Amino acid sequence: MRFVDASQIPELPLPFMNEDHAEEMRLLEGLGEALEAHRARTGGLETVLERLSLLAVHTREHFLREEQVMRETGFPAYPQHKGEHDRVLAEMDGEARAFREGGDPVRLRGYLFETVPAWFVQHIRTMDAMTARFVVSRPGASGAAAV
Ligand SMILES: [Fe+2]
Ligand SMILES: [Fe+2]
């Protein structure tokens, strides 16, 4: 991958989380390519906007799936984990809006390929990892995979 270093993302013992994280990386990568093409004038703004929307939709779904599992299993740090999700979704919406209104590709690139990956790696290593460990350690846990 050219824009994000997927090797920084640890495998977690819940396969659905790994799939969501891999998809998030793929969408970011596609958005990076669209931004580059737009800068080189070989691709249109429409593609950038479309991929930005796809990223926002997937990020919401990704977070909702984790939140559902946390509620179902009574994960004690649910409010903190969900609070981080909500904060990032609001930030992502704000950056997307700023790009739609101002069209500043440098700002968007900085956000997508510096701010988001740094947060993402940190979040997965801490809150997601803690959540996955809690969920699979519960008696009768299903959907777990040895890693
Ligand atoms: Fe996650
Ligand atoms: Fe999370």
Query: The CATH topology is what?
Result: Four Helix Bundle (Hemerythrin (Met), subunit A)
Number of helices: 4
Level-1 CATH class name: Mainly Alpha
User: Unreliable runs, pLDDT <50, ≥5 residues?
Assistant: none
Beta-strand portion reads under 5%
Report the radius of gyration as a whole number of Å.
16 Å
What does this protein structure show overall?
- Pfam families: Hemerythrin.
- Residues 15-129 form the Hemerythrin-like domain.
- Belongs to the hemerythrin family.
- GO terms for molecular function: metal ion binding; oxygen carrier activity.
- This is Hemerythrin-like metal-binding protein.
- With 147 residues, the chain is an all-alpha fold.
- It has a single domain (14-137), classed as Hemerythrin-like (Four Helix Bundle (Hemerythrin (Met), subunit A), Up-down Bundle), CATH 1.20.120.50.
- The chain contains four helices and no strands.
- It has helices at 15-39, 45-73, 78-102, 105-137.
- Helix 1 packs antiparallel against helix 2, helix 1 (15-39) runs antiparallel to helix 4 (105-137) and helix 2 (45-73) packs antiparallel against helix 3.
- The protein is elongated.
- The mean pLDDT is 93.
- The site of one fe (ii) ion has 6 residues, from helix 3 and helix 4.
Describe how the helices and strands are arranged.
Blueprint: H1 15-39, H2 45-73, H3 78-102, H4 105-137
Helix pairs in contact: 1-2, 1-4, 2-3, 3-4
Bound molecules: fe (ii) ion (2 copies).
